[in-house]
Specification:
The chain is an alpha/beta fold. 33% of the residues lie in helices and 20% in strands. The relative contact order is 0.12.
Length: 329
């Protein structure tokens, strides 16, 4: 079995597992980030949950809104901290550092363990041969309470390196070159194992950089703009850059917007100054296009060469469905 299969089998109390199987596994640790902790707090309150499987193995990292941009977000972050304190969770206060980096330094990722986090960069734990998986706010509630989650056993892709790069070539350069040559298709929903002498020369920081790149292959960008031709231009730009988009309507209620942002885990949010106050807190980096219009005007006007292919993620949509919360596709 591969490394990922061995870890999954061990946590499912199975002798063997095979790619494609759906299995329930025990988790070793769970970590949350402040961007979606308020939503998780709300889910606990709505469903009457008052306990977790092991408070000492659940951490809350306040790293996305170190300086709250307004009173509303400051209040929600305070509520999230109160929620963590009442449950007795491990709290990493604002200013401690970036969640996945602190988790790496504090020993939350250990070889052979399974860690789930409400942050797309949880995969950084792969640097220490930990099966580290990011998931949405509602998905993370189950392992917080039961200490278990379900997953599909991934196939494994092997990357073998030969020789050592030149002096000024960094780990990320090698990763980007690999993606340039092979594209994303060989790695979609797969565990990736690297081998070769080059790995022995890398520092932990460099190895973490490679593991962290697992989230960068199809960056999800939120669009929170008024309906106009600008939206079409933004969508085209996102797709040409190799990203995917999730459309957010400024007329939606804040609760719906918060749910969509937390479930999609959009890394970047493109908006306009007039809509900033309508945005719920999230882990996404907010970019106001009308605030950087001069900088955009100075960019090269040549048509961007796109390497996007038909097998890559283009967008994420939410349907109204028949439930209180929309469904995501």
């Amino acid at each position: 079995m591969t490394l990922a299969e061995r870890i999954i089998a061990n946590h499912a109390n199975r002798d063997r597992v095979a790619p494609g199987e759906l299995v329930t596994v025990a988790v070793d640790r769970v970590y949350l980030q402040d961007g979606n902790s308020p939503t998780i707090r709300k889910l606990f309150a709505e469903n009457g949950f008052t306990e977790v499987f092991d408070p000492s193995r659940i951490g809350v990292f306040f790293d996305h809104s170190v300086l709250a941009p307004d009173i509303k977000i400051a209040d929600r972050l305070r509520e999230a901290e109160d929620f963590a304190e009442k449950l007795g969770l491990c709290i990493f206060k604002a200013g401690t550092g970036i969640s996945q980096v602190v988790a790496l330094e504090e020993g939350w990722f250990e070889p052979g363990t399974i860690v789930v986090g409400s942050d797309s960069h949880t995969c950084t734990g792969g640097a220490l041969q930990c099966l580290a998986l990011g998931m949405g706010a509602s998905d993370i509630v189950a392992p917080m309470i039961t200490g278990k989650t379900w997953l599909r056993v991934p196939e494994t892709a092997w990357i073998e390196t030969y020789g050592v790069p030149q002096q000024h070539t960094r780990a990320k350069d090698v990763m980007l070159y690999t993606l340039l040559k092979l594209g994303q298709k060989p790695f979609l929903y797969k565990s990736i194992e690297w081998s070769g002498n080059w790995l022995d020369t890398l520092s932990l920081d460099a190895i973490a950089t490679i593991a962290n790149m697992g989230v960068g292959r199809e960056v999800l960008v939120g669009i929170f703009l008024e309906r106009s031709l600008l939206v079409a231009a933004v969508i085209l730009g996102i797709l040409k850059a190799g990203g995917a988009f999730v459309a957010l309507d400024p007329t939606y209620p804040q609760e719906r917007l918060a749910y969509m942002l937390n479930e999609s885990q959009a890394s970047v949010l493109l908006t306009q100054k007039q809509f900033v106050d309508k945005l719920p807190p999230s882990g996404a980096k907010v970019v106001c296009l009308d605030s950087i219009s001069e900088a955009i005007a100075q960019e090269n006007e040549e048509n961007l060469v796109s390497r996007t292919t038909s097998d890559r993620l283009a967008y994420v949509i939410f349907t109204s469905g028949q439930q209180e919360n929309p469904k995501v596709f």
